[in-house]
Design a protein that fits this description.
1246 residues, 90 strands, 5% helix, disordered N terminus
């Protein structure tokens, strides 16, 4: 580091206010060369709270520097600690550090508060008060943990309560096998170490819940006695087990644990709690809830947001931690527990206190005789700290008063200091939460300048990198630093140069022209000292041709090229690596100046090869892969988009141009066609890339034209026939200097929005177009064709300006010019605008109307004079009224006539005309009345058919909505429509104007008629309306009569639409059908029916393939028949083995009343025998004729129900099977306690 000094703290005689100048002393700490006299400075001390391990020595650090070297002493518990009298205590030579050997001693004897003092003839510095305490890991108090029995679903807390250690122990829970207990959102460990169960489960039963405490300093672990937990499920407990447990044995008996319940808080308790935290510490808030299901925890802060950047959740969101707490973190924090039964809230009121913390700590002062300085000790805290000042370790109120020393709370002012008044001042700031102690010396010296930076030092940097030229100095008074280049040009702070407070000269972007000799001069009133340094700006090292990916056949040679450009004054070193390691020590690898050749390639040569070009200032590297393959035909060429360019470099920089250079990426077998250069304006449009220019694909440089006041960053994209590459990495930022605007705003317009104003608008310049800060617009205006001077007004960067007090609708000449802090834009163009319009003052005269027919008229008027328009004439509005309705027509432009279409015939109209401009409508002209002649009427309002009969229809209609004249009557035309939709002969009838109904007779029954009706005036008939109707209606609901003796006939019905024929579909070929037609009049309940006709549908040859003739079907049937035959044979064999089976004897033997045999008639069973082959089975169904044929044996499937009357249940079981058991429900019909019958065997097979 370089010594730094406060350059502005010097007292200048003759300037009145001392305090104003002394404020400049608050700078970085000062470094005094050690060969000069200076008070002690503490450089190393132990922390304020020191906990030691009793197995090791106590080491209390205290190091200090000064001239002469300081001596050290100690106090313990506020009294002098004589180190030499205690053989166990050693103070290191040349240091104040104490080493206390506590082996064989009671370590407690050395606990206490220690403070170190460093003293020399110029002052005394003191260390912090260091509290020394021995680490402790006390044993767990002996206790016996009662076994806990808890009902499933209840909440549970297992307390740890470890012994208080120093420092506090780390708590964790394990089992007997030293496995940590799994924690989740249901089971969690609180900050105090207790284990919380939101609800217990049967698997929580265990006898080895063990709490462990690990004490950090001694690295010892102690354990609590195991806790046994038994979780009971009350629903599964019988009365005997329940009686063994008293309700008081349950841990949470007052709850209804097994049922679901709303959340409640186990920690903290109650609706609210409080928490105090110190500023800078970590705030830990904890909420643990019980409930079933397990509640979810969420956190919010009432009236504020949680600090997302400093907060974190732990313990499954049950703990909220906020680091580096500040005053804004105080407030009410709400934790919310939620499950599907409800919500619970708890509010933690957090207050933030603060131990003292520095706002501005006192800094060392180096003063020349008769100078004045100030020490400030600015602290903050909550509560507000108390500040105490000390001089050389003695309270300032107890030291002799000095002339020129003044203490004002946190400030000490030292005026006109004298030689020999050097001292060390201590500032102590304390409140109930801690203290701060700072030493700051005042060293009174008279010392001429000295430059501490070595002379003739040479600095070398790469182009476009920052350069730092150091000029570290010392003197009292503090020297002033001045820089010169080449011993003649004074350097001042600016965009290119920055002179730092410590004297260092920074060149932010070094260029070749910055190379040369630099001189720094340090000056004070005791002398002057200069030092020379040299800056050399070097060209960067760049790899122009990078090694390329190689695919080489085994046994061939591979060559990687690596051509480099570097500064000729720097010595480059080329290094090749394989897979980031050294090249193999093999003579097949030949390294040349700019290439690497590998001969007789083998498989082990595969890998990534990297060339690294190093100089003393920079390096560049590039890599390529080598793939070794078998000797195969040349693979097909793969074309891909190019790799992005790299190594963008800016050179030849001027105010309006710069040269951009780049290195092309791999073309991937498709030559680059062009390069696209884009820029980003980091000042006005950060993040937006804009196309700037394109250059040919063979070029690697581009001269770019730039705009002023833009923070440019460039990137390049390559394009081949496949497409564009990804963008290159952006170049470094290049800032152009501000300048006056190059253009003025566009789209300048002047339009009045109200009478007496003129609103001048324009499209503002963008930030890119502004060319500099402070963009404004000069707005100029004057009335056209007048010799008035231009009125002018400068406005901020807005898009409009309003001129008030203008005449109504007069032309104005307008100009808008851009200007900024660096000048005005070019002379603007003049545009013409108009001030605001007002309503027209008069309507047109001589309004005349010419009626052409009942729907069209033409209106004429005299145009109004321009002054009365008071604006731009938009046209004329024609307002016409007929009785209560009104119509409006607008005629655009300056005209004197217009047509009025869409009029209603035989109507009276009133008409007037108004003038329109942009402001609105003027007063109306004189009203003009006209009448339209008669016309043909509109269509009748409706036509409907009512009361249809078999041979008559009644029609009803309404008069037209628009008669358009005097109605003279109606014309009705009608004609029948047959089944093919052909129209029959038409009949025409006429009716008077007051007729609205007619009944037509002598019509054909079941016939569709179409009607046409129109109204007429003296001008003729109007439009017609039509309607259709049948003479017979609603025949679809007619039901066929049911004749005696035909109760089982199933007549199918189809709807007939009053036609004379109907086609029946879906009939089966070769089948005869009876057909009849039924009709009924809705007004007459009598049913009319035709005679029945027998119709036979002829048979049709089947086009389908007869499945019975297919070979596969015949084979399948044969296989099924054979299988059934085998099963029947097996069943017969088993049956014949059974012989006669006396059912009753067997039932008597069992003595079971549930299975007594029954007879068919009286409910009792008889006996059956396998020899009764020709009798029906008892319990089976007898044929309807009451006889049994001889060929119907008991093995016939007919007897088992495979006939017309099904005797099987839905599942295939046989209802009438014989059994030794009582018959059961049908769904048990296939069960039998006896030997299976053939039918049972068949059912089993199915």
């Amino acid at each position: 580091t370089h010594p730094t000094m406060d350059r502005n703290r010097k007292w200048v005689p003759g300037i009145g206010a001392v305090l104003l100048i002394l404020l400049s002393h608050m700078t970085s700490a000062l470094e005094v060369p050690l060969d000069l006299p200076q008070p002690p400075t503490i450089t190393l001390q132990s922390p304020k709270d020191y906990i030691f391990d009793p197995r090791e020595n106590i080491v209390i650090h205290c190091e200090a520097k000064g001239k002469p070297s300081p001596s050290f002493s100690w106090t313990r518990n506020g009294t002098h600690f004589d180190v030499e009298k205690d053989s166990k205590v050693l103070m290191k030579p040349g240091s104040g550090t104490l080493v206390i050997d506590i082996s064989g001693e009671k370590a407690e004897a050395y606990e206490g508060t220690y403070q170190c003092t460093a003293h020399n003839e110029h002052g005394t510095a003191v260390s912090n008060s260091i509290v020394i305490r021995q680490s402790r890991s006390p044993l767990w108090s002996k206790e016996r943990n009662e076994a806990i029995t808890v009902q499933v679903g209840a909440f549970l807390v297992l307390q740890c309560r470890p012994p208080a250690g120093l420092p506090p122990p780390v708590i964790f829970w394990m089992d007997n096998n030293f496995q940590r207990l799994p924690l989740d959102k249901r089971v969690s460990q609180a900050l105090n170490g207790d284990l919380y169960f939101s609800n217990v489960l049967p698997e929580d039963t265990r006898s080895d819940y063990i709490c462990y405490a690990r004490f950090p300093h001694t690295q010892t672990i102690q354990q609590k006695q195991p806790i046994s937990v038994t979780v009971l499920n009350m629903e599964t407990m019988n009365e005997t087990v329940a009686a063994l447990y008293n309700i008081t044995d349950f841990y949470s008996g007052e709850y209804s644990p097994e049922g679901e319940r709303r959340p409640g808080f186990m920690l903290p308790l109650g609706p609210t709690s409080t928490k105090m935290v110190l500023r800078g510490d970590t705030l830990e808030l904890e909420c643990i809830a019980e409930g079933l299901p397990t509640p979810e925890i969420s956190w919010t802060k009432d009236g504020g947001e949680l600090p997302s950047s400093r907060m974190s959740f732990h313990n499954f969101k049950k703990t909220l931690k906020i680091s580096d707490v500040n005053e804004a973190d105080a407030g009410d924090y709400r934790c919310t527990a939620t499950n599907n039964l409800g919500i619970a809230h708890h509010i933690i009121k957090v207050t933030v206190k603060a131990a003292p913390f520095w706002v501005s700590a006192p800094r060392n002062l180096i003063l020349a005789p008769n100078e004045t300085g100030i020490l400030t000790c600015r602290v903050n805290g909550e509560p507000k700290p108390k500040i105490s000042w000390f001089v050389n370790g003695v309270p300032i109120e107890n030291v002799p008063e000095e002339h020129g020393r003044k203490v004002e709370d946190d400030t000490v002012i030292l005026s006109n200091v004298q030689s020999g008044s050097s001292a060390v001042y201590q500032c102590n700031a304390s409140n109930e939460f801690g203290y701060l102690l700072a030493n700051a010396f005042v060293n009174v010296l008279a010392e001429p300048p000295r430059v501490l930076t070595p002379p003739n030092q040479v600095y070398q940097v790469i182009t476009n990198s920052p350069a730092l030229l150091h000029c570290s100095s010392f003197g009292s008074p503090i020297p002033t630093i001045t820089w010169f280049k080449d011993s003649q040009t004074a350097i001042k702070d600016g965009d290119s140069y920055v002179i730092h407070e410590n004297g260092t000269l920074e060149i932010s972007v070094a260029q070749l022209l910055n190379s040369g000799k630099y001189t720094c001069i340090a000056t004070n009133n005791l002398g002057i000292k200069e030092n020379h340094v040299f800056l050399e700006v070097k060209e960067p090292t760049r790899i122009l041709k990078q090694p390329e990916y190689k695919v080489v056949q085994r046994g061939m040679s591979a060559m990687f090229e690596c051509k480099v450009k570097h500064d000729p004054s720097l010595i480059p070193t080329m290094t090749w690596l394989k897979d980031n390691g050294e090249l193999p020590d093999d003579e097949r690898f030949e390294v040349d100046t700019d290439s690497l050749t590998i001969k007789d390639v083998t498989d082990v040569d595969e890998g990534t090869y990297t060339c690294i070009m190093n100089t003393t200032l920079d390096q560049d590297s590039a890599s390529a892969m080598l793939t070794v393959v078998e000797a195969t035909p040349t693979p097909a060429i793969v074309y891909e988009k190019p790799d992005p360019p790299s190594d963008l470099e800016l050179t030849d920089q001027t105010e309006r141009s710069v040269q951009l250079t780049w290195i092309p990426g791999d073309e991937h077998n498709s030559p680059t066609q062009k390069f696209l250069i884009q820029y980003e304006d980091l000042l006005h449009q950060p993040g937006v890339w804009i196309n700037l220019t394109e250059v040919a694909g063979t070029s690697t440089t581009a001269q770019l034209n730039l705009s002023p006041y833009v923070y440019y960053s460039f990137r390049v994209l390559a394009q081949n026939r496949v497409g564009h590459s990804d963008p290159s990495q952006p170049s470094r930022q290049y800032r152009t200097s501000p300048a006056a605007p190059d253009e003025n705003p566009s789209d300048v317009q002047g339009v009045g929005t109200e009478p007496g104003n003129l609103v001048i608008t324009w499209t503002p310049l963008t930030g890119f177009q502004s060319n500099g800060p402070g963009l404004e617009y000069r707005v100029q205006w004057r009335q056209k064709d007048m010799d008035d001077e231009w009125s002018s007004k400068n406005v901020a960067n807005v898009s409009q300006f309003i001129v008030s007090g203008t005449p109504t609708f007069v032309p104005y000449e307008i100009k808008v010019q851009a200007l900024n802090d660096y000048g005005s834009g070019p002379e603007p163009e003049v545009v013409t605008g108009y001030s605001g319009e007002d309503f027209p003052v008069s309507g047109p005269d001589s309004v005349q109307v010419m009626v052409h027919n009942g729907t069209l008229a033409e209106v004429h008027w005299e145009p109004v004079l321009s002054p009365s328009v008071r604006g731009k004439l938009q046209g004329y509005k024609n307002n016409k009224r007929k009785t209560q309705s009104g119509l409006v027509l607008t005629f655009s432009g300056n005209r004197s006539e217009g047509r009025l279409p869409g009029l209603q015939p035989y109507s009276l109209y009133s008409l007037f005309i108004t003038v329109l401009n942009n402001k609105g409508e003027g007063p109306p002209s004189t009203s003009k009345t006209f009448e339209t002649p008669e016309g043909v009427p509109g269509p009748p309002s409706f036509l409907k058919v009512i009361n249809p009969g078999l041979d008559s229809l009644t029609l009803e209609w309404g008069s037209p909505v628009n008669n358009n004249g005097r109605l003279t009557g109606y014309t009705l035309k009608y004609q029948p429509v047959n089944n093919t939709n052909e129209l029959g002969p038409a009949k025409v009838m006429s009716f008077l104007a007051n007729d609205t109904t007619v009944t037509l007779g002598n019509l054909n029954s079941s016939m569709l008629y179409k009607f046409y009706l129109s109204a007429k005036t003296i001008k003729g008939s109007g439009p017609i309306i039509t309607e259709e109707a049948f003479t017979v209606m609603d025949t679809t609901r007619t039901q066929p009569p049911v004749e005696t003796g035909k109760g089982k006939d199933d007549w199918k019905k189809e709807l007939v639409n009053s036609s004379h024929s109907h086609m029946l579909k879906g009939l089966k070929p070769g089948t005869s059908y009876k057909v009849r037609v039924v009709a009924r009049d809705p007004a007459d309940p009598t049913v009319h029916s035709t005679d029945e006709v027998v119709v036979t549908v002829p048979a049709v040859p089947s086009r389908q393939v007869d499945i019975a003739t297919q070979g596969w079907f015949i084979g399948l049937m044969c296989a099924i028949a054979l299988l059934i035959l085998v099963l029947l044979i097996v069943c017969f064999i088993k049956r014949n083995k059974g012989g006669k089976y006396p059912v009753k004897e067997k039932e008597d033997a069992h003595q079971d009343p549930e299975i007594q045999p029954m007879k068919e008639d009286d409910g009792t069973f008889g006996e059956y025998s396998d020899t009764e082959d020709h009798k029906p089975l008892k319990g089976s169904r007898t044929p309807s004729n009451g006889t049994v044929r001889r060929d119907e044996s008991d093995d016939s499937l007919v007897d088992y129900g495979e006939g017309g009357d099904g005797q099987f249940n839905e599942d295939g079981s046989f209802i009438g099977q014989y059994s030794g058991k009582k018959e059961k429900d049908t769904h048990e019909g296939n069960e039998s306690s006896e030997a299976p019958s053939p039918v049972n065997a068949m059912n089993s097979f199915v």
